[in-house]
User: What shape does this take?
Amino acid sequence: MDAKGPLRALDRFQRRHAALAVPVAVARKYGEDSGGSLAALIAYRAFFSIFPLLLLLTTVLGYVLAGDPELREDAVDSTLAQFPVLGEQLQGRSLRGSGVALAVGVAGALWAGFGVVLATEEALDRIWAVPGRARAGFVDSRLRALGLLALLGGAVLASTAISGLAAGGAGWLGTAAGVAVSLALNLVLFGAAYHLLVSAPLPLRASLPGAALAAAGWTALQLAGGWLVAHQIRDAAPVYGTFALVIGLLAWIQLGAMLAVFAAELNAVRERRLWPRPLPGAPVEGVREA
Assistant: This one.
């Protein structure tokens, strides 16, 4: 009796049907490119960038709201009070602008943001198998990262804010509008990232399949995160709320990074027709080596 007969039959079936062959090829390539490690590096840099951004946020609000004490107290007691740890530190105090804090926040946000963009560039170059000599140099990569950081970073913040408002208890019409706007922003965001962050020139169409997948998945993650903060973490005890926020934030960013890398693998597989691929353990006869 052939123990691998069912596996061979399943493998032949998936090779003949693109709806199965493409996901199998993407999953195989994700593993071969160490996609988990690439996603972990992006997630680490993204998590680290949150804290300089929070410092920058509170400092800027201190300057902007300096002439309106009532609005400043409303911001501290409502929006900012929902952040665990940060909310406790701000309650009962007033926001004040600080030149040192502003400088540290800007420098930290730029440094961490550069790390996210450069880690994404490295991941995409590896996914598309760009040779080392063809990759952007030290100066070119950082100049490009500076421009893309302003464009893509602003889109990420806007999309996340809109999704958070949509998941925070708005009416169904407002929620639907928020989801649609966030989905459109995410589609533009991922399409631009997949097209511009690769050192090799690629046609725009090569970025569209992965951008659509990443936009849909990232919008779902944003809605889930906004719902958890609005309905679960916000009402938790301070200590447990802090642990829940940190653990949830780590998991949320890691899932988002994995989704982004997986969607980029989809672009490479479809554009270069790197399928069909055999299932793990199945024979490789008749399969073109990619």
